[in-house]
Design brief:
Largest interface: A-B, 31 and 21 residues
CATH architecture of the largest domain in chain A: 3-Layer(aba) Sandwich
CATH class of the largest domain in chain A: Alpha Beta
Shape of chain B: globular
Number of helices of chain A: 10
Largest sheet of chain A: 6 strands, mixed
Helix content of chain B: over 70%
Number of strands of chain B: 0
Number of domains of chain A: 2
Number of strands of chain A: 13
Helix content of chain A: 25-40%
CATH superfamily of the largest domain in chain A: P-loop containing nucleotide triphosphate hydrolases
Strand content of chain B: under 5%
Radius of gyration of chain B: 20 Å
Order of helices and strands of chain A: EEEHEEHHHEHEHEEHEHEEHEH
Strand order of the largest sheet of chain A: 5-6-7-3-8-9
Largest sheet of chain B: none
Oligomer: heterodimer
Shape of chain A: globular
Structural class of chain A: alpha/beta
Chain lengths: ~300, ~280
């Protein structure tokens, strides 16, 4: 069976702007892929191409086996989409809005009510959408994206404007979907949140895919240094570390805490050194490079000596 | 087909909900009623049926008002939904773009059907209540007038969609819509009249004039209603034109139908290629 979504050598120009340059990407079934990048990196363009809202300048796209811009639109019954800054017609109630979308997807009306409950909008279902807060609209947007048990779900910045107390529920829903074999593509700025649940990370910069792999792979590729935060025992000055681990880059946090920055492969050796007997170390904390740092690294790599993209 | 009906149903519902239907119906009813009672004063109660007078005044009103209402509804249909971001979401659903367009068209025409038949029907109803005698053929002429008014509205809804599918933004669509309205409702006839006066029938013969009238849907409507029945054309002062025009009622209806189909097909084609 082919992958739910395949993008091959796709470029997209808007006049003089090259929004996407030669991007190839396969989204396998049951994976949650994080799409990360600055504004204007091409994330929304990629989703719109996958939906057939715009057509590629070059390359081919297959979504559920069809060309999204010209194939059989019936395959979109198995697709869910949450646009960035989702908006609905304000004069309809939440229940009516979801019922309308359920009819279009031929999903049973009962499933719409269940979804309203799942996103916590049952109490507000009879109110006009115009009275909803940003977070409630976002939840309604999420509910419509989940109608009809989709096989592919595209979420454009789903967590912006989401109420903090709903975030956990949101990630629970995502993980449930993935467990059911749904492919999820999620773009976000909240890199640290995606760190825990993303199977794969795709980093975009200025229309180019600069990285694509599991977080562990990207970490390895980036060869980012590990950081070890060392807390000295009472009465022992932080300077002591200098002699314990010679040649290791050290950043002083305060009088009795320092941060050691070393290449990943030296990690164990350094830990041995600082935990030697009578070293006077009270506590030790490992800080692996986060998605934020991996992301920054790949952007630096791509932008080269010119430094950060503006 | 189901998708088309779902979209049409939603458009009607939205228009009922945000009072579009109510406002349009009340406007048409108020104008129709005032024309019925004020307009019949100068003619008195002699001669032809009072309903014939109403037909003349109402169809003159329709030529200005119905295109304006239709363009107001339609110019926003595509570009407005793009700007509000609701179209991208709708098109991610299993629905074809032509279905969206057809559904909206059916819905918007249904709104016009409701508003026109209730609004103008109020005038006929009021006449019946006040005990005016109404001849059977006058009633038929009135029903035909209401029907053709809806057709004229449908023409301008289709034109509005074409504008909406082409326009870059809502403000642009509104501007073009007003321009098209002025052009077809006022400027075209003025220009034609000017040419006729200057030309004195040398190059613009009766045949050319007939053809030129078909090129403007409001003129087609005017010809259809004001020359349709002998009683009406006398009141309308169109008896002269009615005597010379080569077009029969079926031809005029066909012309209106063409004025609906061509812009609608063009709008669908433009919309199908448009990047959202």
């Amino acid at each position: 069976m082919t992958a739910p979504a395949e993008i091959k050598g796709v470029s997209k120009r808007f006049g003089r702007v090259e929004a996407l340059r030669d991007v190839s990407l396969v989204l396998p079934a049951g994976e949650l892929v994080a799409l990360v990048g600055h504004n204007g990196a091409g994330k929304t363009t990629m989703m719109k191409l996958m939906l057939g809202l715009i057509r590629p300048t070059a390359g081919t796209i297959r979504l559920l086996g069809e060309n999204p811009a010209g194939g059989d639109f019936a395959v979109r019954r198995q697709l869910g989409y949450l646009p960035e800054n989702v908006s609905f017609n304000g004069v309809m109630t939440g229940r009516e809005t979801l019922a309308f979308y359920a009819r279009l997807k031929r999903a049973p009306a009962g499933s719409a009510l269940e979804l309203l409950d799942r996103v916590g909008l049952t109490a507000a279902a009879g109110r006009r959408v115009a009275t909803y807060s940003k977070g409630m609209r976002q939840r309604l947007g999420l509910a419509q994206a989940l109608l009809g048990a989709p096989r592919v779900v595209l979420l454009d910045e789903p967590t912006t404007g989401l109420d903090p107390e709903f975030r956990q529920t949101f990630y629970d829903i995502m993980l449930d979907l993935r467990a059911g074999g749904t492919t999820l593509l999620m773009s976000s700025h909240a890199l640290t949140e995606l760190e825990e649940c993303a199977d794969r990370v795709v980093i975009m910069n200025q229309g180019i895919m600069v990285a694509n792999g599991t977080l562990a792979e990207l970490r390895r590729k980036a060869q980012l240094p590990s950081r070890i935060v060392v807390t000295m025992a009472d009465g022992i000055p932080a300077e002591r570390v200098d002699s314990l681990a010679p040649g290791v880059a050290i950043r002083r946090i305060n009088g009795h805490r320092v941060e050691l920055i070393c290449p990943d492969e030296d990690k164990i050796a350094v830990i041995r050194q600082v935990t030697a007997e009578n070293a006077g170390v009270a506590d030790l904390e490992m800080v692996p490079p986060g998605l934020d740092e991996v992301y920054a690294h790949f952007l630096r790599l791509h932008n080269g000596p010119r430094g950060e993209a503006s | 087909m189901t998708n088309v009906l779902i979209i049409a149903g939603r458009e009607v519902r939205l228009a009922l909900r945000n009072r579009w239907v109510l406002a349009t119906t009340l406007l048409l009813a108020a104008l129709a009623l005032s024309l019925t009672f004020l307009g019949s004063a100068p003619t008195g109660r002699v001669g032809a049926g009072v309903l014939d007078v109403v037909i003349v005044s109402l169809s003159s009103l329709t030529i200005f008002l119905i295109p304006l209402i239709a363009l107001l509804i339609a110019h926003d249909a595509i570009v407005g939904e793009i700007e509000r971001g609701t179209l991208a979401l709708l098109l991610s659903y299993p629905i074809g773009r032509w279905q969206v367009m057809t559904g909206k068209f059916l819905g918007h025409v249904a709104i016009l059907v409701i508003a026109t038949s209730l609004g103008y029907g109020a005038a006929a109803g009021a006449l019946a209540l006040t005990g005016s005698e109404m001849l059977r053929h006058s009633l038929v002429a009135f029903a035909v007038m209401v029907g053709s008014s809806i057709l004229l509205g449908a023409v301008f809804i289709a034109i509005g969609y074409l504008i909406s599918a082409l326009a870059r933004d809502r403000a642009g669509a509104a501007g073009i819509a007003i321009g098209v309205w002025l052009m077809l409702v006022l400027v075209y006839d003025m220009t034609l009249l000017g040419i006729l006066v200057v030309d004195q029938g040398r190059t613009v013969t009766a045949g050319v004039l007939d053809a030129l009238l078909l090129l403007n849907p409001t003129d087609v409507y005017r010809l259809f209603n004001l020359t349709g029945s002998a009683n009406v054309s006398q009141f309308a002062g169109m008896a002269g034109l009615a005597g010379t025009t080569a077009w029969s009622a079926p031809v005029l209806i066909a012309a209106l139908a063409l004025w609906i189909v061509v812009p609608l097909v063009l709008a669908t084609a433009v919309f199908a290629r448009r990047e959202i």
